[in-house]
Amino acid sequence: MKLYVDFSNLEAAVSKMGSSRVEFVIKQNYVPRDPIDIQLGDGFEVDFADIQFETGLASYEGRQVLLYIKDHHYGNKYEQAIENGKSGNRYHVADCSKLEEMRKKGRLERYVVTNKLDGIFKISRGANEYREAQEGETKLQICQFCLDAINYQGFKNISRGPKRQSFVATFDLTDFFDTYSSFFKFMPSGIADNQTESYSDDWQQVSNKVKEKYLYVCQQCGVDLKSNKRLLQTHHKNGVKADNTDLNLTALCADCHRKQPLHTHMFVPHKDTQLINHLRQEQGLNSKENWRDIYQLADPGIFGVIDMLESYQLPMPEVGLEIVNALHEVVSELELAWPIKKVGVAVDKESRAKS
Fold first, then answer.
1. What is the C-alpha to C-alpha distance for residues 84 and 302, in angstroms, rounded to an integer?
2. What is the mean pLDDT of the chain?
């Protein structure tokens, strides 16, 4: 729909001030949203059988989601939850022991799925002979059993009590979804919206010059990406995207780039991480001397697994071990592996089956 606005009075006023007319163009950055993303933003009930936990995390239609019980009908639970979300039902992000308990009780049909990232949830209470139905919003808390199940940010190692309570109280859904974004086909719009900060108009030219300057080699891990230039990115060291001075710009592979401070919002498809690790192996760059090297090489989505392995003082694994068939074709890739023990960690069912 076109809009026609009469600016003649404004132009006359500008003319009196001695200014001349300047042509301008309003840039439109509208990105159509899939209907399912709109639905997930609002939250809706689905058959629990349609929720997938292939990676241990809850997903729906290729999207990472969380689920919770909307109905708060016991006693004064609704009023208490509205006043303080800590008193409400917890929301779930992973296949935890609490969900297993709910499976056994047959209560899973009461769950709502959403990928809303602000932590504010719609809750309700049904009507009875004494009161009318009610609905409101409150800030619910994350299920601690979920955090335990995936050992998010080393949660298993946090002693019970005030420290865990503090962790839960300050839990950030956007950071959580960012961490595991590479395991999913689509990103929640909330994460995508965080990546819209503008670069300078000549950014593409500036970026290309930086990559050429460093011969398409990552300045952190050293991987040569001449044959896969799309995997090399230009990084602002001070985080200011408008600062394109030489000292502030360097070239990093997509994996190293997203691991920089305040860069967890970057979406790097899991296949790209695997390709970078493949190239590191080919170029003899997958060496490890300590657990810090393991973290540097691995996908952030399995940091919780690595933390547990380190805490149990297990042998350091290989990162990104490729599984080949009799024809020496790569058929799968394990995130972590102990080749001698023939034990490995895979992200999805397909990788596990081929391994």
1. 33
2. 87
